[in-house]
Amino acid sequence: MDTLRGISCIAVVIFHLNEPIPFQNNFYQSFAKFGWMGVPVFFIVSGYCIQLAAARSNSALSFFGKRFFRIYPPYIFSIILVLSVCAIKKLTIGVNDVTVLPSSFPAWIATILLMTNPASSIPTINWVYWTLTYEVIFYLIVSISLLNKRMRLPTLYIFAFLSVIPGSEHYFFVLNQFSFFSLGASLNELNRGNRAESISLFILSILGILLKQPPVSLVVASLSYFSILFSLNDSEKKITRENWFSQVGEASYSLYLSHVPIGCYLLLQFRTGLWIEFLPLHIFYDLVVLATCLIAAKILYNLVEKPSMLIAKKI
Question: In this structure, what are the phi and psi dihedrals at residue 103, rounded to the nearest 5 degrees?
């Protein structure tokens, strides 16, 4: 699954590097504009992994503790990274022109607790943080279901069913994306031999995606589903285990968190004129930025993410 994570994260990075500039009708930007599709892939992979962790967890507290140390230390470090870039801009050009920082104590608390948009009206300071809010709510839902282990699957069914109801996302925002999580969870149930549970979750998830998401999302979801299924086959693990994308995938969370402040907020300010208008230079610049972000992500992974994962495993 690291290969899938790596490909998806690079797609998101390329998308964000090109989102701030006017669209030009060329093959590169036509490809880049679909990079957002990496996000549903993350949700599907997350659904699989979280369902796997929930099935193995001893308690709700243990589960949530593990997830907390999995995502929060790198997240907090990424906030510091954003603030550092804002400070650099302020010192060099006299103004922070990259993002609007929280202006009140409650807004800072919401930012730290990942309760910004879409959980509230408080804007995020990093373009990717909105997806982490969905992740945290999904963790909370699974944690609550583990208070009584017999409710683990029924809780998934309930939310997967609610996700199919038109307009339900207006009452609980997470239902807008929950079908991707439940699709990943259905794969885990299939891998555990729970075929009936897997099929029912799969049907509800596909219906939710059809009703709530753009048509292309169904294609992405289907490709992700069968890619994960392929990677779970013992005879195929050697094919998918070791490659460059899987190495990127190992540090994909660090890359996901850091590429906006480093790649977009800091480095894109120098991509002007011919660096945008002349396609070979445009692509070359983006590749240099991507390489820089990959190096930074590897450092963040080794210094923060990997140690926090080791702590999570001990809980």
Answer: -110, 5
